[in-house]
Amino acid sequence: MDKISTCRAAYLIPFIDVLRDIGASVERELARAKLPTMVEETPEELVSNILSMDFLTRSARLEGVDDLGWLWVQKFSSSSFSAELLTALRSFPTVKARLDCLSNLIALEDSDTRVGLIGFNGSAEVYCDSKSSEIPSDPISEWTQVTVLIEAVRSITGENWSPDEIRFKSDFSVCDAARAANPNTRFLTQSAHTSIILPSSVLAASKLTCAAAQVPEPNTPNKLDGTENLKRLIRPYLLQVAPKIEVLADVMGVSPRSLQRKLKQSGSSYSELIETTRFEMAAEMLRDSDMPLIDIAMMFGYENQSNFGRSFRRVAGISPGKYRREMFGRQRVA
């Protein structure tokens, strides 16, 4: 299965908040971009980078917003990092160690981003670049990239720290609000990297930690097989209506027939992929909530509770009610 350029939905949600604040027709534009309209309900799932950038650039143009990337910065914080990344970062005591950790685990946040460090003349350039030529440099995405780096450094230095320079690969005018918020920072555009510049001494800044300095084995998108990656992409859509195969084919940049062929090669079909993903989401709700069965059935697009039961039994071999009772019994024993 071909690799798909994706990021966690958590990175798209602050943009949606900004657009809602200015009265944009968010749901209409999400649907037009073939993104799940209930993406805010699934921050841990994946969305297509390409479709997301199409949605954001079009929305910014329609609403006349020149600094959407900077407005996103005001809504974002490191608490939006994945739990795996946050846990790993907190186990390291220095800025350098946390940046190295971020470099190792950045695929948890975005499959097409790389983080690295270049040292020169008592300073260090920490870059966060896109690996994909399909996603051109754009101030919207570049603001997210430099902010991820700054948040990693601030996890040690504190929230008032700012880099000496912020560099962007694209050519645009940095807004006055961004300059006012970073009065001691120089902004450069048309640079070789999207990056921040800081004194090398900052790399040694430390914070005491009781956790062992050990990076956990991440369940990164790179290590998931192609079918698992597709299931994470489909999950946000299933809170409404299962997407047609043409939607997922667009996400992958292939024809529907080509996608069907790839799924067949992996031992699956599109209908099986939808059914399995819907089952897994329903099983999570049965395990983690006391929501009535009929409500779970309606949430995931089943026509009625009977159809839900038949579909669930076809995959699990037992009814939804029995599954819930067995899971509850295991939790009580544990």
From TrEMBL:
Annotated source species: Ruegeria atlantica
Gene3D superfamilies, sorted: Homeodomain-like
Domain annotation HTH araC/xylS-type: ranges: 228-326
UniProt entry tagged with the keyword DNA-binding: yes
PANTHER family, alphabetized: HTH-TYPE TRANSCRIPTIONAL REGULATOR GADX
SUPFAM superfamilies with a match to the protein in the record: Homeodomain-like
SMART domains: HTH_ARAC
Keywords linked to the UniProt accession: DNA-binding, Transcription, Transcription regulation
Protein name: Virulence-regulating protein VirS
Signal peptide, first to last residue: none
GO cellular component assignments: cytosol
Any one Gene Ontology molecular-function term assigned to this protein's record: DNA-binding transcription factor activity
Keyword Ligase among record annotations: no
InterPro entries recorded: Homeodomain-like_sf (IPR009057), HTH_AraC (IPR018060), Tscrpt_reg_AraC-type_HTH (IPR020449)
